[in-house]
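Notebook B, p. 112. Complex prediction, attempt 2.
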Amino acid sequence: MTAPPQGHARVRIWDAPTRIFHWAIALLIPFLWWTAEEERLDLHIPAGLTMFGLILFRLLWGLVGSSTARFVSFVKGPWTVARYLAGRASPVIGHSPLGAFSVVAMLSALAAQVGLGLFASDEDGLFSGPLAHLVSYETSETLTDWHDRLFDLLLILIGLHLAAVLFYLIVRRRNLVLPMVTGAGEGEDAAMPMRPAPAWRFWIAATIAAGAALWIGGAFA
Amino acid sequence: MRKALLGAVTVAALIGIAACNRGEAPTPSNGASDSASSGSTGIIRERQSHYKDMGKASKAIADELRADTPSLPTVRENAQRLADYAPRILTWFPAGSGPEAGVRTRAKAEIWSDQEGFGRAAAGFITAAEQFNAIVKSGDVAAIRADRVELGKACSNCHDRFRAPERE
């Protein structure tokens, strides 16, 4: 058995729900882009509802999930971010104080994007988001416009995210992708280990999220 | 921060609804004034407002058909509007009102280079709109729902070939 280098050990960083969420949206975003580009709204709308369920789940998981998935554990004030940038922050497992900003920005943009999509419709009145009937043609048109434009912001945020991952890989010699696949990675001894959440919490959060997505999509009508 | 995240979906939607009622409804035109405005700019603007009107009628129908018990008078009114507009479409595309007009229009050059194909697509829509209107008059909601899909195909059949995408 090879001993890990001094001060470092293999520890759990991300729980399975957080990893599955991450890779699900990483696949879903290009699909949503493609179906919008090709005007395949018959596919775009169900995929958007899936995204709605995923985002809602992640928000719930941010409240009741494992320690590294919780907003209270990783969202820090600007002071902590500054100390982190100066290299004086205490070691953490999971999102760094700066990475947390990126996570919050991406989640908020995705939540807003999904929210706009619910009220969006095509100009011919043939396909519409599940809540578009609650607003006028003009309002729906405007929200669709925003839905279209907000995607550019999402692309910028995703670009920054990928650039940060590359920066860590090349400059800091730290692979962030692998832990997001396996759930485990190198952690510093001084850092608090991940406290996993019990499975029943996952099932409750997942049921709420899936139920809300189905309900909003009209499955129970 | 938590609250901000949780509220993001609703907030985005609510802000949108509150702030965005600035789009004024285009004035519905009354048959006689189809080519009253002079120049291709006027022709294009008017054409766009007619299509917007049709989009509105289509959304109004879709919104009703989504409900368990749709308001049939609303559906009837909007189906009639579509049926009235349909035969006029071919008069909205005089020569010179295409991409060469210098005004932003999504009308493709193919409308004029393939007049036969465009005419067939328009004729298909006229038939579909008349058929839909007749079924709406019958009041059979299930049949109306089914035929709306057919009507939608007739819309898209023309748009897919002769209308450029919204964002190039």
